[in-house]
């Protein structure tokens, strides 16, 4: 089967670092005799539109490796174009704020090595299909890493504003967002229906629905999540005092909070194949791989092994 490498460079990512990769991509492609194409995205959803057109115009007998050179949002756009196409592979060159999905596979720096990426094998990874509804409108899409609702989502929104300021990195912006949101301690009032019929109905601090462990630039909020086990991990933290959350957060960031004293009374942690969440009032904001949307109701479903994901390994001769 023929193979083609297509790089989608997000000019907004990494303060323009993605654009600076062009020469390196061309040099490696020439040295390795690889068929390569480079495209600079121009606006939101452009990566998805370009990828959909690429799929339409290319032979199904050509294996195409698509490189998301940007953040989790760029990868999400490509993901939503390639689902259902067996000749498509997803690679991520992490240059965004969080770069959280690649953290599930080891050293983030390996993912920034173009030659490792261009010569690597793929693994099958699950994704989450979600359908959200609001004011009679319904939309279905896919998520590769995590959804956040409540406090975590509020932090993502605040971090998005802070990261535009000079000298504030992704993880720093997230921690600054946490500090800002501690003043308000906003959560969410939701009805959460699990697949076995159990229901949580009321106010909560946050809920994460996850395929991967990490959010916010390395915060391990959903520590038992596996990208290939055929389940979503759901982590729900009930409303609690500011003091209790401050005590818990250091363990939460390291993924050690499930064993903390009193955690069993504060946290609901479950694995599931499906889930439904409905607002007990006005539509709520949710974050999908870092992108914000409002919904009145969302249904989630795991899709096992839906994507061939490129996982680079260090080349032996370069160790």
UniProtKB/TrEMBL annotation:
Keywords: ATP-binding, Kinase, Lipid biosynthesis, Lipid metabolism, Magnesium, Metal-binding, Nucleotide-binding, Phospholipid biosynthesis, Phospholipid metabolism, Transferase. InterPro entries: ATP-NAD_kinase_N (IPR017438), Diacylglycerol/lipid_kinase (IPR005218), Diacylglycerol_kinase_cat_dom (IPR001206), Lipid_Phosphate_FormReg (IPR050187), NAD/diacylglycerol_kinase_sf (IPR016064), YegS/DAGK_C (IPR045540). It comes from Gallibacter intestinalis. Transmembrane segments: none annotated. Pfam families: DAGK_cat, YegS_C. Belongs to the diacylglycerol/lipid kinase family. Its cofactor is Mg(2+). This is YegS/Rv2252/BmrU family lipid kinase. SMART domains: DAGKc. GO terms for molecular function: kinase activity. Residues 1-134 form the DAGKc domain.
